[in-house]
Design goal:
Helix Hairpins, binds fe (iii) ion, mainly alpha, single chain, 192 residues, 3 strands, minor pseudopilin epsh fold, 8 helices
């Protein structure tokens, strides 16, 4: 059994003008695909070969972990995006309000975290084991699923996520990211 590259939940051009078809072709078609290919090569013939992706992420280190976690993180990232530009519905809104003061205050704090995430990494909204919400940054391939945190939303802040569209302007990319957030998906990840 090998790890598959999941189909995108939207057409390649569906996120324009915020994220271009060219970015999707490279980010999904080349970068994400390469993590999948390298992961499959690394687990072939090992005890991890017949395990699911989450198990592999939680039980590996070094280069194998990096590829497995990057597959998991990207699988999650694509699900966080939609061209339908929804706003958070009432359950999620009140949860964000309770935790951050308001939905806008949450977006400001998440943006500040994403812009301050040094180098390559990811910015996340997570739910802790005690059900509280938090914004966390991870470096490189690191992922909250190894920290007993449930990811609700992520923004990929590796340069490959925005260099084609915005060159080095991460703030522009994050601004456009907000037009694409799939709030229904974020809410669906909240623990009951
Ligand atoms: Fe990426």
């Amino acid at each position: 059994m090998s790890i598959e590259l999941p189909a995108l939940p939207f057409e390649k051009n569906a996120l324009e003008p915020h994220i271009s078809t060219e970015t999707i072709e490279y980010h999904y078609g080349k970068h994400h695909q390469a993590y999948v290919t390298k992961l499959n090569a690394a687990i072939e013939g090992t005890d991890l070969a017949n395990k699911d992706l989450e198990y592999i992420v939680k039980n590996s280190k070094g280069g194998l972990f990096n590829n497995a976690a990057q597959v998991w993180n990207h699988n999650f990232y694509w699900q966080c995006l939609t061209p339908e530009q929804k706003v958070p519905n009432s359950i999620l809104s009140s949860k964000l309000q309770e935790s951050f003061g308001s939905v806008d205050a949450f977006k400001d704090a998440f943006t500040e975290s994403a812009l301050g995430n040094f180098g390559s990494g990811w910015t996340w909204l997570v739910q802790n084991a005690d059900k509280s919400l938090a914004i966390v940054n991870t470096d490189d391939a690191q992922t909250p699923i190894t920290q007993d945190q449930t990811p609700l939303l992520t923004c990929d802040v590796w340069e490959h996520a925005y260099y084609v569209d915005y060159r080095n302007a991460r703030p522009e990319y994050v601004k456009h990211f907000w037009a694409l957030v799939n709030w229904n998906f974020v809410e669906s990840q909240l623990a009951a």
